[in-house]
Amino acid sequence: MTSLVLAVRYLTIVPLPGRTAHGTPALGRAASWFPFVGLGLGLVLAGVERVTSVVFPPPLAALLTVTAWKVLTGGLHLDGLADCLDGLAGKDAEHRLRIMRDSRIGAFGAIGLILFLLLETVAVAELPAGVRWRALLVLPALARATPPLLARCFPPAKADGHGAAFHSGLRAGAAPAALALGVGLAWVGLGVAGLLVATAAVAAALALAAFMAARLAGVTGDVLGAAIEVSELAGLLTVSAWAHVRP
């Protein structure tokens, strides 16, 4: 339960009381709980969507839902995505890592975040009501199953970075356990479409990590956070495509 509290505190803005272990290695030991935190986030988002869809027209309801989504996570993963995008302007791995450590956002990061949030908002708005709340329920859990998988598949870019510390605290069974839970929730919530969604979400996270690892000689905490955002968007787009092509 201590690990669950730590995961909730790190992945959301929920101020749970009590003492927990601190540091990124401790967070690595809590990685098995990430999908559970995502499921809790999804429950809140499904509730927000039900309320906003009654009170507001679809575009505004979707924007408010996505806003709640990002506020509840404190913008943590969006920050990682922006850092990764800015890092692409670097000349080599060392230069890219130095850019990513800069707290200021650059043109690549700003433009990327705008387009990313527009895509998410429109995807949520265009989903059929019966599918929308189920997608919002399962996607946060599925996306948060990816960090332990990526930390196992790719080496840390820095020996002293958050990615390395997270990897050092990761238990052997964390990645398969988290992934099994995420995929299982997707299948229960979305049926056959959920398996396609899970495939797209995990593939997108792996593709991003592989792309960044080739340019950074490994992955960082920013890459793991960006992968969560990318997998959520890939899942939303897959659900939207499925709903569009199915009669």
Brief synopsis:
The protein has one domain (2-245).
Task: Please characterize this protein's 3D structure.
- The protein is mainly alpha-helical and 247 residues long.
- It has one domain (2-245).
- Helix content is 78%, strand content 0%.
- It has helices at 2-11, 24-29, 34-55, 58-72, 76-87, 93-101, 107-126, 129-143, 146-153, 162-169, 174-190, 192-216, 221-245.
- Helix 5 packs across helix 13 and helix 12 runs antiparallel to helix 13.
Descriptive labels:
single chain, 247 residues, mainly alpha, 13 helices
How far apart the termini lie comes to: 45 Å
Helix segment tally: 13
* Strand segment count: 0
**What structural category arises from helix and sheet content?**
mainly alpha
Number of structural domains: 1
* Sheet of most strands: none
Average pLDDT level: 91
**SSE succession:** HHHHHHHHHHHHH
Low-confidence stretches: none
Query: What is the CA-atom radius of gyration, in angstroms?
Result: 17 Å
Percent of residues in helical segments?
over 70%
The shape, in one word, is: globular
Q: Approximately how much beta-strand content do the residues carry?
A: under 5%
